[in-house]
Amino acid sequence: MSQQNWGxxxxxxxxxxxxxxxxxxxxxxxYANAYAEKLLGVARExxxxxxxxxxxxxxxxxxxxxxxxxxxxxxxxxxxxxxxxRGAGDRVIPVIANAALSNTQAGxxxxxxxxxxxxxxxxxxLILARRQLEAHSEKLYQLSVTDELTGLVNRRQLKRRxxxxxxxxxRSKSPVSVVVLDxxxxxxxxxxxxxxxxxxxxxxxxxxxxxxxxxxxVVGRYGGxxxxxxxxxxxxxxxxxxxxxxxxxxxxxxxxxxxxxxxxGVVSSEQLEHGVNTYETLFELADRAMxxxxxxGRNRTLVARP
Amino acid sequence: MDQKGIADRNNVRLxxxxxxxxxxxxxxxxxQNVWRFMIPALxxxxxxxxxxxxxxxxxxxxxxxxxRYSRLEGYAQDVLDICEAFxxxxxxxxxxxxxxxxxxLAAQRQPNRFRDLVLLGPSPCYLNMPPDYRGGFSREDLExxxxxxxxxxxxxxxxxxxxxxxxxxxxxxxxxxxGSFCSTDPLVAKTFANATFFSDxxxxxxxxxxxxxxxxxxxDVLANPSVGEYMHQxxxxxxxxxxxxxxxxxxxxxxxxxSAEVLAFLSR
Lengths: 306, 268
Fold this sequence. Notes:
Order of helices and strands of chain A: EEHHHHEEEHHEHHEEHEEEHE
Strand order of the largest sheet of chain A: 2-1-5-4-3
Number of strands of chain A: 12
Radius of gyration of chain A: 34 Å
Order of helices and strands of chain B: HEEHEHHEHEEEHHHHEHEHH
Oligomer: heterodimer
Number of domains of chain B: 1
Number of helices of chain B: 12
Number of strands of chain B: 9
CATH class of the largest domain in chain A: Alpha Beta
Helix content of chain A: 40-55%
Strand content of chain B: 15-25%
CATH superfamily of chain B: Alpha/Beta hydrolase fold, catalytic domain
CATH architecture of the largest domain in chain A: 2-Layer Sandwich
Strand content of chain A: 15-25%
Number of domains of chain A: 2
Largest sheet of chain B: 7 strands, mixed
Helix content of chain B: 25-40%
């Protein structure tokens, strides 16, 4: 065996010691090993006396102050933190940092920094892949909740959002109203003007409905020529006012020289016993009222009476 | 939510039995444990209220929503929810880092709940806004921070979770605790980082109505001395004290010094 004194200068990672964080000059570098010189491309004499802040990039300084140092002070050590150090000529070198608070009175911090250039490349690729997947999944999500023709939410999402709003309303004990509407004599439009014209009318109606909805309301296409609103924090009388304005607005759409008309059914959760006011029940009641409005003359609103 | 609900949601803890309530609000990154070194000095004469913002520490991760917590107003609502649930009036609010602005927002929303504010290393805006405001960071620096956070959370099991579950995921997780001293949930941490570092609340400074102590660290990179000076100039009735300390976490590294300043201000 040789008599060589093994020490930090033999190790292939940067070993640094900084002053205790609660000491005067608490971020000062007190020691750097040979590998630190090599990694940073800076002579040891220059490194010693530097501040931690000079050693790391601004982003890494924030990680240091909001994550690494608090963790170190709380738990005494921390592991595998990815940071970027600044080498000679403003070269940025990604490193994996481990740090430990020493038991000395002064509370020095001992650091080991491992060059992580290749691991960093892998991380970048992972981040990119994740972002692409996120965008992809967001796109699929939007497709799954949107009605393709009108751009309103589809029946599935209508039901889902309605249930969320009803749950909130139960907690805050506020009323929710459901409005169901259907275009009058739409079959006739399709038969005389053709399906494309029919689609165009559905689109224009959807745009009127969307404009009429308040920010907190949900409006969706239930199917065919049937649409529905869920109106949070809305009483029966307010929902009736809402429906009245709706008749007027829809009348601005012209079909074959005639104003478009709709029949509307309205129901408010106030009318129902607590616990029975599920979206399914409310929709069914409003839907029935809407059909009654159709059979009793169309172009009118009826309120459901459970 | 009732008192129990809010207490659980925000992991509220009360220490000491002084008459006046001192609400201690942690900053971005960690949780209420950052106050542990100051509590002995403060709890001798005050009732200390500790809490974790939703998404941090042992709060309810299920109560997190990107919508609410994308802006500091959402965090201020946590503070106000706690005040309401515990029927607090005349609170002295002590906030570190981003909690400085959170406290200011809360105090401006419901002035009667608060008596005074102590802000440790606050900043109304971390971005440089040339020519006359130097928050300390360029937009590029802060984008790199988000990148670094991503890299650091890659190793955590739930790194892929937000993506796999779609945008409404957190609402659907129930009863799960985030539970470590420094936040490691990528969605929560990045939402908090965005709300903190890309915001500019300089416009609310002149609306200050409460006596406010600003504690400014001498070599704090996150909130540099010119930021403290800027805040002091724009906040009526504020008092600026420069501390001869290193770094941003001086409530952990210099607890005696900071406690002494806080106590002196509160008993003014």
